[in-house]
């Protein structure tokens, strides 16, 4: 069964940087795709994976 993400939203930082992404809902998780080339598809993360990623971003663990 194929699940299609819904409610795509562009990153608020996309206006400041050349690396633009969009996030959509998939079940209780998320899908992420490149805004500039949507034909490349997307990757998905379940709720737990997505929350771990958000926590890492919020605590500046990525530089």
Automatic annotation (TrEMBL):
Family annotation (Pfam families): DUF397
Query: Quick one: where's region Disordered?
Result: 1-20
Compositional bias segments (type: Basic residues): 1-12
Q: Where does the DUF397 domain start and stop, copy by copy? A: 7-58
State the protein's name.
DUF397 domain-containing protein
Name the lineage. Answer: Bacteria, Bacillati, Actinomycetota, Actinomycetes, Actinopolysporales
